Amino acid sequence: MISTIPSTTLNPPIPLVTDLDGTLIKTDSLWEGFYALLATRPWRTLLIPFWLFSGITVLKSMLSEYSLKGVTTWPLNDAVLGELQKAQNEGRPIYLATAADRRIAEAVAARMDCFAGVFASDGVNLKGSPKAELLCSYFGASGFDYIGDSNADIPVWKSCREALYVGSGDAMLLRAVKKAGVTCRCLDSLSPVTLRVYLKGLRVAQWAKNVLIFAPMFLAHQFTLKSILLCCIAALAFCACASSAYILNDLLDLPADRSHTLKKARPFAAGLIPLWQGPPLILLGLCVGALCTLFLPPPFGIVLIGYYLLTLFYSFRLKRLIFIDIIVLASLYCIRMGAGAATLALSLSNWALSFSFFIFLGLALIKRVAEFNMRTADGDSNVRGRAYIMADKSLLETMTVCAGFSAEIILMLYIDSLNALSLYSKPWLLWMLCPTILYWYGRMLFIMHRGKMLDDPVIFVLTDKNSLACITIGVLVTIASI
To answer: Which of 64, 93, 422, 455 could make an SS bond with 116 (beta carbons 3.0 to 4.6 A apart)?
Structure first.
């Protein structure tokens, strides 16, 4: 919010007008409406071509119904806010002029509480020349300053007194501006989208989960060059498809992520990657995954399709169902192991599946409890976007303990089974895994209970020295037992 300061400098003051999409906000209201519709009423997206056929203003009006709730979470551009504050310090009136639907513009104006007036699309698409003509009719040619960000703003810049540009130095735009004979003052507020930002958007840190694809090869002691190569291709396929699913999930969760202490820094939620780039990135991930399946046995493709469909159901519906979301998260880990088995035509024993499921169930439960802890720290009474209330936290913690110790018991029983005797020459060494896993999981429980666990235990494990040491010991003990 920007405070109102009386006029002391300009007489009469020159109004400052700012655009909305990509200027005042680091996102696009039309795409926000599309993803809000996709998240709440996915089947209604089939009506978009008909709305568009009726006119762009009709499309904007229909989509605005779904994006209005998220207006208060949209990321604002600090450089534009600074320019608006400076104008107010000089006593200049500030206006919002946007091609977005009027309801969206008025909601943003209500959030900011600093605008003297709002110009927006209401039957007429207020973009380009129509916006320039309307502003000139109100303030006169060269009677206002204007902040914009795209080619559509060139007619307005040609009609204003001072043109201000928000962006990352788009060469094509700057050439078009120069060709139009407009001199813009660049606020230089937006950084170019770097490879690091894209990698963060793809959630490459989560790719570590796909090491589970190698687990069947490791458990079956099939350390051949062909097996390793096939598992690497399978892991690449899962990385690509997982990133595709993560991007979709992030786009559907934009309002909830922006209200989260850590998730608000995700590239799409923070406005670091334009929302229109989401669908191409999703499609790219699917294409890479499909290409990889051409080099792998058909059963792997079936498992990969099942994995992706389950993630879609999770993103659209299952993540909002109590406890089903946790079971799905644990199952997605196990599916990765199933993909590794399908890649090498191996079978997973009931011992491996049951131990893995309970361990992964425990990690999924830890993730939910960690979300509770973060919400409590933020003063929220429940986990937004989930079916849980604060009273469920103690029950989830109890389930977390039970899941981990169930996995420990299964491991102990396995060590004394015929399966272990047939695979390991020194199965008694496997007993060293029990205290190692018990220490690792127990320590995770203490960290979770004290509220110091990150929202994602996988990221915690990858950055925690003790956890990495336990994993190293486990691998060495297993190899020594062969």
So the answer is: 93
100: Cα separation from own chain's centroid: 24
**C-beta of residue 223 within 8 angstroms of C-beta of residue 217:** yes
Residues of the chain with CATH 1.10.600: 195-481
Number of Cα atoms under 13 Å in the Cβ half of residue 368: 33
* Size (the chain), residues: 482
CATH 3.40.50.1000-classified regions of the chain: 16-186
CA distance 254 to 287: 25
Q: Which of 446, 438, 448 is nearest to 470 (CA)?
A: 438
HSE (side-chain half, CA atoms, 13 Å) at 374:
19
Least Cα distance to 470 among 450, 427, 430, 441 occurs for 441
Buried b (16+ CB within 10 A) or exposed e, 120-152: bbeeeebbbeebbeebbeebeeeebbbbbbbee
**Can you name the residues that pair with 101 across neighbouring β-strands?**
121
**pTM for the structure as a whole:** 0.89
Predicted confidence band at 371 (pLDDT cuts at 50, 70, 90)?
A: confident
| 41 φ/ψ angles, rounded to the nearest 5 degrees | -135, 70
Across the beta sheet with 145-148, the strand order is: 117-121, 94-101, 16-18, 145-148, 163-165, 184-186
- The CATH code of the domain at 16-186 is 3.40.50.1000
Nearest Cα neighbor of 101 from 56, 137, 136 is 56
> How many angstroms separate the CA atoms of 33 and 25, rounded?
14
pLDDT of residue 82: 93
Radius of gyration of the chain (CA): 27
DSSP label at residue 94: E
Q: Which two tokens stand for residue 457?
A: 């235990």
What is the rounded distance in angstroms from the CA atom of residue 196 to the CA atom of residue 280?
A: 18
In three-state secondary structure terms, 309 is helix
Residue 30 CB-half CA count within 13 A:
17
CATH 1.10.600 given to domain 195-481: yes
Please state the separation of Cα 112 from the chain's center in Å.
26
What would the two tokens of residue 205 be?
Answer: 């840190």
Torsion region of 222: left, alpha or beta (phi above 0 gives left; psi -120 to 50 gives alpha)? beta
Contact 118, 106 (CB under 8 A): yes
User: Tokens representing 298?
Assistant: 């058909």
At 107, list the tokens: 């909601």
Average pLDDT over residues 220-237: 94
